[in-house]
Amino acid sequence: MSESSEIIDRELSRTTAAKSAMIAAVVAVIGLIDAAYLTAKHYTGKNVPCNIITGCEQVLNSSYSEILGIPTAAFGALTYFLAFSLAILTVYGNSKMWNLFGILSIIMTVFTLWLIYLQAFVIGAFCQFCLLSAATSITLFIIFLTSKILLKK
Q1: Cβ contact 86:98 at 8 Å
Q2: pTM for the whole thing?
């Protein structure tokens, strides 16, 4: 492979990661807004409107809605903020952050799958805001995975 070909491949990889990271940043903001909303509702004690499906209050008032006294949604807001930050750092040229983003997206997806299991088989109810967060987390992982597949071609 010639030197110019290697330069083109490096630039293509950087561009692909940057485009994927920009999309991921937007998705992470959606997750951040959702998780911040649920965190605020938790601390104010106000009911969350459940317009699409029923069961939000059952999920959000379950013993799984907190970890060590902190709302699960607050942990979600923190991880979405971290995902957003890593994606933005990637957009601005720090390609190592994209691999950290990938690790975070895997952790988020595994935790999300656990929470979906709890809703389906333990709590027996679903929360539309929790499902939005699940879709957002899984989408972040898919964006990362897709970028890695594209980079290998």
Answers
A1: yes
A2: 0.90
Alpha carbon 7 to its chain's center: 32
Which of 58, 54, 74 is closest to 66 using CA atoms? 74
Band of pLDDT at residue 24, cut at 50, 70 and 90? very high
- Note whether 13 and 99 are within 8 A (CB): no
Q: Which residue has the higher pLDDT, 48 or 143?
A: 143
Question: Quick one: which of 106, 96, 105 has its CA closest to 28?
Answer: 105
Which H/E stretch holds residue 119?
Answer: none
The mean pLDDT value for 108-127 works out to 97
Spell out the residues 6+ positions from residue 88 whose beta carbon is closer than 8 angstroms to its own. Answer: 21, 25
- Which residue is associated with the tokens 């293509």? 12
